[in-house]
Amino acid sequence: MTTAIVTDSTAYLTPEERQKYNIHMVPLSVVIEQESFEEEVSISMSVFYDKVRDQKQLPKTTQPAIGKFITMYEELAKEHDEVVTIHLSSGISGTYNGALQAGDLVEGITVYGFDSEIACAIQGYFVIRAAKLAQQGATAKTIVTELEKMRDTMSAYFIVNDLAHLQRGGRLSAGAALIGGLLQIKPVLHFDNKVIIPFEKIRTRKKAMKRVEDLLAQAVEKYNGAIEASIIHANCEDEGRAWMTELATKFPTVEFKLSYFGPVIGTHLGEGSIGMGWFKREN
């Protein structure tokens, strides 16, 4: 019995990672001035931010059509018995539920879903872990069980320049956005129960980043330094890389990588957002 791994574009895995681990990807889309673009396929991160920087109207994001998942599963059924399909949080997108609905419509292959309850590079960690297990011959049920264990060690926090993007996109309450704007705060946000909520309200970006660094330090102590972490940026690569370099010096046992908020997630966070996520490294 062989198991295929499917995810969506918001894991923001590189083409090299997808090829190395035999990961199959179904893209979400952004609509800019009535033109639709599939992220990671027909529009890149940098081109997206250039296009929308001066737009008064927020782009729209759309989940993949169920038909795209059906086509993917039917193709995978030729060589696989099972699929583990891993997606961004069902609390902010219908992609996960659409993937499961498609699985019910395809014969010859069993589809197991995993709601990452998060997005971006942290979602990508789940996907890579699943793909490694699949390459070792693990069954879909075993893979899902391992991902659930992995979730217990994961954390992610991010800082936005403008809460209005999240509010306008329906991912944050109007009240929380208004308070943030009035106080000129840089709240540290996180996922809780599958949705984005404020974690702490901090007055400056520098202090907010320091708070996230302190949270990483707590995790490093808890897990004896066995941590993998991602710095995630919304088209502010120089700042993200500088932060990663600084943190790598402070936490030499942590394996860092640099990632990004692509078009779909960037639509809701806005350019200049930055974040960090981590999990306990496997032995």
TrEMBL record:
Pfam families: DegV
Alphabetical list of InterPro entries matching this protein: DegV, DegV_C, DegV_domain_contain
Keywords assigned by UniProt, alphabetized: Lipid-binding
Top-level taxonomic group: Bacteria
MF terms (GO), sorted A to Z: lipid binding
Methyltransferase listed as a keyword: no
Protein's UniProt name: Fatty acid-binding protein DegV
